[in-house]
# Entry
Amino acid sequence: MQGAKDSMSRFRWPLSILLVCLPLALIVYGVRIPGLAPTEYISPRPVPSGDRELAWFNTTTSGASWERFVAGVRRAAADDSKLLVDDSGAFLDQTTSVPEIVIGRVGHSGRLRIRWYKLSGDHPPQYWVEQLALRDPAPLAIIGGGSSDRARDMARALARQTTWQGARPLFFITNATAEKVHSDQDAIDGTVGVTSELLRIYEGRSFRFCFNNRQMAEAILDFVWQSETFRPRLLADEARLAIGSGLLAIAPPQKPTVFYVDWDDDPYSSDLIGQFRDLLYAEGGPKPAPVYSGWKIPFSVGGFYRANKPEEEVADAILKELNRLPPQRTLLILPTAAAPARRMLRLLAGAAPELGRKLVVINGDGMGANTILRDGEFAWPVRVLTIPVLLFTHNNPVGWDEGETPTGGFPLAPPNSTEDVLHVSDMVKSFSRAAWGETGDSLAWDANILSKRLLASKPALFDETGNRIGGRGEYICAVRPRTDPTEVGLPEARFEAWRRAPDRSWQLVRSRTLSPGREP
# Structure
């Protein structure tokens, strides 16, 4: 009996310490424990009288995205001297806190408070929407949608919530580009597996600040067909040889060829491929209409460089099809993230090192410019991936500061892409002008007023559906590897950023060499 007591005494203190420390550790790492979690984590913060709130929804691990968002707000204030920014509460030590950045306007009362409400498994968008709906006043807008899946979930959470303390908030979509989204969850009407237009889920209250997939596909094809370097056509050298041999005299004219690869587990991929197909065969599209065909891959899971089995099979099929074609430049649409695109191009370039003379890859905005500019030495080694690639960006990716640091700090310097910061800056300037009005009106006190001012802004930024108006401001990035390994004295590749001007021409913004041992 005494031995049993001694044994219990031996473990009493360790168990006591564990029982005390374990809940504290869980709270520090953002795990909510009923009765112990901080109140501010499970309920929205109040809004001071006269101020209004914009709720920024993102995951608990999005600290870097929040830092770039804050940098974008500060850049907006540097460009507009009437904006006042207080970021003293933007970077808080507690992981369960609600960071905020406050925007004011010179000569006006009332401020906009942009607050980061952190998403997690216990706190999905629906949770925060329900909590915010109980508070008076309701937010002017919810900001989010860094991907099409997240935007879909946020839009559906907002659509389900019909009662608010005031007008229903707007939904500001930051980067979700898909026109249509598919869901394997219950839709609002109770159906499963529904495909919906993204902006119609929360219809009439959604504003997309980025370009959508249709506009992206149109811009890329417009750039390609204006470029002698990238436009699909018979290769001149081989064509001259064919003329000399008399082969062209008996061969019919060749149509340009466009291939695509569709990853089934990526809704962005399928939607963008569909937009390319519709534009290529639409009235006014390229003539003659190209031969358009492709392959489906069931999943995009794979290694950093090592492809999965279906990707290997598709790469082999692409090479066989290219060998069957007469000598020509072919387009290959790979609308996916950096890892699947890198694996596919490594397979193709490894099997045919000079394939870059015959193939141009279109990615869209599936992988950011930082994949090339900042992380290229390991994420996109141009010495190995010797095939030209076209990327789309929603703002200037090479808008680096020159000379003195801008007012407000946050300098933009290479090799980091500037797209995200400048995109946020333009977005903040747009909704700030609408919040206070173009003529210095009072701060909008509900979302209905903000919506009317956004739609009436000059020049117009959105169409009547809430989509951003295209045709100006799009950027195309071209990665041009050295395709002939025998050439010496040339850089491994060039990175070019092109901007579409109001007259729809394409203007070179900046060209940058990509060589081994790039500057840090």
About this structure: The chain has 15 helices and 17 strands. Residues 35-40, 186-192, 239-253 have pLDDT under 50 and may be disordered. The chain has two domains: 39-211, 214-393+472-514.
